[in-house]
Amino acid sequence: MLQTFKAVLTGNRLEWLDETPEMSDRPLEVHVTILESHPGRETVSRGQKMAEALEKLAALNTFAGVDPVAWQRDIRQD
Asked: Taking CA 38 as the corner, what is the angle to CA 37 and CA 39, rounded to the nearest 5 degrees?
């Protein structure tokens, strides 16, 4: 019986959207059907969203006044 899983194909990489198929370390044979894009529906990978969020955080310069070595010493109380 064939199972269907939703995924986004970016280059040669599939990113599962909902349920993830059970996989082992061996190659898994799949059939991919390209669906037409819906107007106004953007498909952005989770990695791309994370990169954008990190860029925004970096632009805020939130941790500019924090000395990481002093912070770690204080936290660890060595």
From this structure: 115
Cα separations (Å) of 4 from 1, 8, 47, 58? 10, 13, 23, 39
- Within 10 angstroms of residue 46's Cβ, the number of other Cβ atoms is 10
> What is the sign, positive or negative, of the torsion defined by CA atoms of 17, 10, 40, 34?
negative
Question: Rounded to the nearest 10 degrees, how much is the dihedral formed by the CA atoms of 47, 33, 26, 3?
Answer: 110
Contact 32, 5 (CB under 8 A): no
Q: Residue 7 class from Cβ within 10 Å (0-12 exposed, 13-18 middle, 19+ buried)?
A: middle
pLDDT at 43 over 80: no
Say what the pTM is: 0.39
